[in-house]
Design a protein that fits this description.
heterotrimer; A mainly alpha (466); B mainly alpha (53); C mainly alpha (125); A: 466 residues; Amino acid/polyamine transporter I; 67% helix; C: 125 residues; mainly alpha; 60% helix; elongated
Chain lengths: 466, 53, 125
């Protein structure tokens, strides 16, 4: 039997598809752009959960987790290059129900991250204004709507903008780092007086474990680079390259951020502030640095929300395209070549949550969906290597030391689930219950509208063991 | 100044939101549903060849 | 294996499905907020003596707090607002069971669906 449901590749005719216009720099901008806001807010809640030293320890260990994520992701996605990223991977490697869940993880993680970014941006402006009677809602609305509009109008412009604003935000961290003379302690930085043996780990080692939850926030979203797979000119090369470069950039930024912030404020304050880097700028006493970091905080939040709209819309779009959700969502704008209906659909949802949730909660929702997804990725790569061993298909990139990264990733996910349990346990159960119920809905009802064989679009041989 | 900025933000949001709604309506009524939802996974190489920018 | 032809979904059906998903998303995200389940489990260990020393802040820390505009009174609620990490075994076991059960269901049901996909795609040529 031949595959007739999917007509052979058609070139002529009136078809619209996403546009292949992006290069490695855009992939970097998408990945780092989403994540960099984590240095401006969010990572510091790890200090709240475990103390300043715990925040540094998780920065490194979670860095290891994400290096595994980036390696695994690069291998799979350089082979399964389709919009939807991990969703398309799950569909080809594990199965439809898993794919449906993965897409929901993606949409939730990114939408809630977008919500957090918008709230952060609104709150930052309100804090800066410092006048009575000003509400953050207008700034939240403007952030979400303007970025949705940018996304609506085309991916190239969206990611060009992201590249510029991400680069400015990144450079501002570097400028802050070098202007506080990091090589001499005591002048501006007072690490040994702020992080003392007595308060470095106020909760002991359990605090370090608990801090994993927000340690995720140093890097959450780097795996979003794969969403651009259908819009990158040469996915097999650009995606691994952009993702790895992004990961290295972030590891450097995370280390600098921790060092400056922990040397400038007591951990109790660091743990609750919404603007650790902006506060660091203030505490240096330089008005220039303060304003620079204020603007950088806004830009980082914008870049992140922008990337999130991009990624969430692609994941939602792919769900529609495979009929996992109504096909209505799979429309591509004939002129701008973007998944415009998905962008519009997710806009009011993001807006509604930005108005009702608070930052901490939105971040936790996002982290939860992220960790569920990483757990999937660790199992996914093992299945991928089993079903299509090396040499059976062409891989753009092959990650080293398999299966070590997968095992490391899995163990760290288990630790992170335990960390979420410490302090946010009921929220975790509520989320998993939701995914479980919606999975039942999909498996027993919605899946009947899905074409079976047509979901498998990669030109691969039959998987081993089937 | 901040209050004015706040109103400006509401204004921009509403204008852009209305523009998107307008464009959405225009596109959906101009093109056929088959054409709009004709994107397929795995066909992109060939399609992008044709629409070279 | 015979090719499976899915039923065409009516417009109303599509709209209904979208509504189901939207409601599910809102319930999942909004209900925990409403029930107060979301957010950190923290509580304040109140101290009587509200001085920087009593709050465990050395002079460097105290000077930074003051630079940020805090007094020992206003900083008290921040510094003494602590997590209390008590491992509540029943909840932990429920959480682990829910998570593991969820993943087992996911992989098993996916595998069943996946076999159909592979059969149809690579089936008896």
């Amino acid at each position: 039997m031949t595959i007739t449901a999917e007509p052979a590749v058609q070139v002529q005719g009136d078809r619209v598809s996403l546009l292949r216009v992006l290069g490695p720099a855009h992939v970097w901008a998408l990945g780092v752009g989403i994540v960099l806001v984590g240095e401006f807010t969010g990572w510091n809640f790890a200090a709240d959960k475990g103390g300043a030293l715990a925040a540094l320890i998780v920065c490194w260990i979670v860095g290891l987790l994400y290096t595994s994520v980036a390696m695994i992701d690069s291998e799979v996605t350089s082979t399964v290059a389709a919009a939807g990223g991990q969703y398309a991977q799950a569909k080809h490697i594990v199965g439809p129900l898993m794919a449906f869940n993965v897409a929901l993880f993606l949409v939730f993680a990114y939408t809630m991250l977008e919500v957090s970014d918008a709230i952060l941006l609104g709150d930052t402006i309100v804090a800066k204004a410092g006048v009575e009677g000003i509400n953050h809602n207008s700034f939240i609305a403007a952030t979400i709507v303007v970025l949705a509009w940018l996304n609506y109008r085309g991916v190239l412009m969206t990611l060009n903008v992201n590249f510029v604003i991400t680069a400015i935000a990144y450079v501002s961290i570097v400028i802050l780092f070098f202007s506080v003379s990091p090589w001499t302690q005591g002048a501006v930085l007072k690490l040994n007086e702020l992080v003392t043996p007595g308060n470095a780990l106020p909760y002991g080692w359990i605090g370090v474990i608990a801090a994993f939850q927000f340690g995720i926030w140093y890097y959450l979203g780097i795996e979003g680079t794969t969403q651009a797979a259908e819009e990158v000119r040469s996915p097999a090369r650009s995606l691994p390259y952009g993702t790895m470069a992004g990961m290295i950039t972030l590891l450097i930024a995370a280390a600098m951020t921790w060092y400056v912030c922990a040397s400038l404020m007591p951990w109790e304050y660091l743990g609750i502030t919404y603007y650790p880097l902006w506060d660091a700028g203030k505490l240096t006493g330089s008005a220039l640095l303060e304003n620079l970091l204020f603007i950088a905080t806004l830009l980082a939040a914008l870049a992140s929300a922008n990337g999130c709209i991009n990624d969430a819309a692609r994941a939602w779009f792919s769900l529609g395209r495979d009929r996992y959700l109504p096909t209505w969502f799979s429309a591509v704008h004939p002129k701008y070549r973007t998944p415009y209906r998905s962008i519009l659909f997710l806009l009011p949802i993001a807006l509604a949550f930005a108005f009702i949730a608070d930052l901490n909660q939105a971040i936790t929702f996002s982290i939860l969906s992220g960790v569920l997804q990483y757990t999937f990725m660790s199992i996914n790569i093992i299945m991928f290597r089993k079903k299509w061993p090396l040499g059976s298909i062409r891989r753009g990139y092959t990650h080293p030391f398999h299966p070590l990264p997968a095992i490391v990733l899995f163990c760290l996910c288990v630790v992170t689930f335990f960390a979420i349990f410490l302090g946010f346990g009921s929220q975790l159960i509520a989320m998993v219950a939701f995914y479980f119920l919606i999975s039942l809905w999909f498996h027993f009802y919605r899946y009947k509208f899905v074409r079976r064989g047509a979901q498998f679009t990669m030109p691969w041989p039959k998987p081993q063991g089937y | 100044m901040w209050v004015a900025l706040s109103y400006a933000c509401w204004g921009i949001s509403i204008v852009l939101a209305l523009w998107m709604l307008y464009d959405w309506f225009k596109i959906d009524t101009t093109y056929s549903e088959e054409m709009l939802t004709s994107s397929r996974e795995g066909e992109l190489e060939a399609v992008s060849e044709k629409h070279r920018i | 294996m015979a090719r499976y032809t899915p039923p065409e979904q009516s417009k109303a059906g599509q709209v209904f499905d979208i509504a189901v998903v939207v409601v599910a998303i809102f319930v999942a995200l909004w209900l925990p907020l409403k029930l107060g389940l979301a957010g950190a489990a923290k509580s304040i260990d109140a101290l009587d003596a509200k001085t920087w020393e009593a709050l465990g802040q050395n002079p460097t820390m105290a000077s930074i707090w003051e630079k940020l505009g805090y007094t020992p009174e206003t900083a008290h609620d921040i510094i003494q607002n602590r997590f209390h990490y008590i491992i509540d075994w029943p909840t932990l076991i429920i959480m682990a069971a829910v998570l593991i059960g969820y993943f087992i269901f996911l992989f098993r049901a996916s595998d069943r669906e996946y076999r159909d996909v592979i059969d149809e795609k690579f089936g008896d040529k």
